[in-house]
């Protein structure tokens, strides 16, 4: 592995901050921008460097459309944008250099909390998937016949950020209007008509030739030949991105917005079948997005909108090298939404969001029959077939009214009161519609490895020389769960002198678990000098999380199965059925208690935010086996996290030099997490006590091994050169190598004869990367504008091993090396 000085990326960015062309003319700032008096095809000049995107209030980050375009966003997923937030962490296994051809977006965690307990919203509606969100890995092979579909996600829609107008990210001090999370909130707003008519077309490409791979030497040959069928190695791939954005006014008061995109990857896989014959196949992996919105202004106080949304990720897979039917795995959703905004005579504002969203995980196989024929030994592969179709689906009908009263004065205080609610009816199910069937045929008279001795006079070993020896029926079935959730909330924002208070309370009811949960949301801010230069904030909040269809399914799928044995005459010799090993669940709602302290300081051109957050999460869900072999879920999971974040920027005062404007932002995040949820499939774990640091402890006391980078430092810059229609953005990230606890392979026996696995500390390496992006929007003709972008992630090709196993036989897995992404387009 190559190594570089860890300070090199920082030096390069700092040196480049002021290395802007001296020929740039500051007079370019007077370039015309579109307004309502100009033609429908007026030119859009390069947007100003935006001041949004920094933390404008404690716990809130706003990223608007201009900043989305400026930041290095990789493949355009939500996770790529959130790397600028020091409260957000990612899985150490979320990206790998060996399988860069895969399109799956990364998951992320807020303040060390479970990544599957985040809230995702689109246009004010909860669009989080509650099917099986903790199954965080991909599914390219060996789908389960006895469990739920893997490869799901809490993100019901894999959004293309290029189609968004704004993203609000809450990591602490979250208002009472948001519920159903213990981590954080990501609230996205799709583009809406802004008075300008245009069509914007873009095409992007990334290829394996433009990437620097980092592979364990022991795996190099397998990697070079793509010797995998589960997408472990993708040395040959091509990614394409097609995007269409359009806006069109319909009369004076109506506008239509349309956004369509396809991001696709085609990558090579190869495998050997039962006769050691080599097969080469290309997998397709694609994410489609469609968002349409119709806005109408009835008058200056009434506005309505109707929207259609669709997102779908689907990819190919292979059942196995033996049972070689292909399948398609998909994760996606589609929905309809409506919004009404009305301003009353009193100045109060009423908002109503309505929606229907259907989200699903589906497995579509080539067949539902897989067989083994002993007569084919030495002639053809003895095994073939597939595992059938499976569907997991969630359909939700949502209604969310909110009334924001006009500000009012009570004595010496000023109040801004917000009351609202959420009502949602959810239908969800897991279904195997036709079952899957395994048939094993054995020889009536075996000829060792050469098939069967001829019994039917054909002279060959064929099906007529066999009998059905074993049949395994994975039966059809359906598990349904329908329930209603309802919430009421109130938030009072109070100003009195130099003090600001937020007094909030949220009540949530779930008809499935019959839980009524009360969550206070409280904060206080003191403007020390009354001019906003020094603000001290304290907050105390409780957040209640979510419950999932996975809990209701539990172990019931196994009870659909039957195993039957036959003799040579077709008589049943033995039949085995399987019981449902599920035990009834009686669950409380997981919750997280938060205490936060913050200090905001304005120092000349700089804005500084220092924040401490303590999270104590309790009643987290874990799967347990009782003494009778029954499985159930309980609330014994827990998590404790301390986080310290600091951001410094000069967003309100760009550095102006030689016709350019530059904004720089520095952020530092420190975190310490203890949790008993140690893997992606956290709520399906069955943890036990372990021996660690000289004593027997509960698994909850171990340091978290994932989503737990203890120190991250990032520096981002955006430089604009108006005369050249040019923007140059950089993002430098330093992620410290965390210390994890891993199984040492040894055991400890106490005085009572109880044995425990011994865990020991293991420290991973630090990683420094630099991502850079250059965006050019030249004028082409009077009414057209070009678009050219080049983005290089990990410019200095830094990479570290993410291996956590103690076994030398396990290969190292490395973080991605340098990648290049090109994109061109035109705006009409």
- CA-atom Rg in angstroms: 29 Å
Distinct helical segment count: 5
Fold-level CATH name: Maltoporin, Chain A
The amount of helix comes to: under 10%
Biggest sheet statistics: 22 strands, antiparallel, barrel
Give the count of structural domains. 1
Kindly summarize this structure in a few lines.
The protein is mainly beta and about 850 residues long. The protein has a 22-stranded antiparallel β-barrel.
Structure, explained:
By secondary structure, this protein is mainly β. The chain has a single domain, classed as Maltoporin, Chain A (Beta Barrel). It has five helices and 43 strands. Belongs to the TonB-dependent receptor family. It is found in: Cell outer membrane. Keywords: Cell outer membrane, Membrane, Receptor, Signal, Transmembrane, Transmembrane beta strand, Transport. InterPro entries: Beta-barrel_TonB_sf, Plug_dom, Plug_dom_sf, TonB-dep_rcpt-like.
Write the layout of secondary structure elements.
Blueprint: H1 8-16, E1 55-57, E2 60-64, H2 65-70, H3 78-81, E3 88-90, E4 108-110, E5 119-122, E6 125-126, E7 164-170, E8 185-190, E9 198-207, H4 220-224, E10 237-249, E11 254-272, E12 278-299, E13 302-318, E14 326-343, E15 349-365, E16 369-373, E17 383-385, E18 390-404, E19 408-410, E20 413-432, E21 436-443, E22 466-474, E23 477-496, E24 499-510, E25 515-527, E26 534-544, H5 549-553, E27 561-566, E28 572-577, E29 591-603, E30 606-625, E31 631-649, E32 655-657, E33 660-675, E34 690-692, E35 695-697, E36 711-721, E37 726-735, E38 739-749, E39 755-763, E40 767-776, E41 779-781, E42 784-793, E43 819-827
Parallel strand pairs: 5-8, 16-21, 34-39
Antiparallel strand pairs: 1-2, 2-7, 3-4, 5-6, 7-8, 9-10, 9-43, 10-11, 11-12, 12-13, 13-14, 14-15, 15-18, 16-17, 18-20, 19-20, 20-23, 21-22, 22-27, 23-24, 24-25, 25-26, 26-29, 27-28, 29-30, 30-31, 31-33, 32-33, 33-36, 34-35, 36-37, 37-40, 38-39, 40-42, 41-42, 42-43
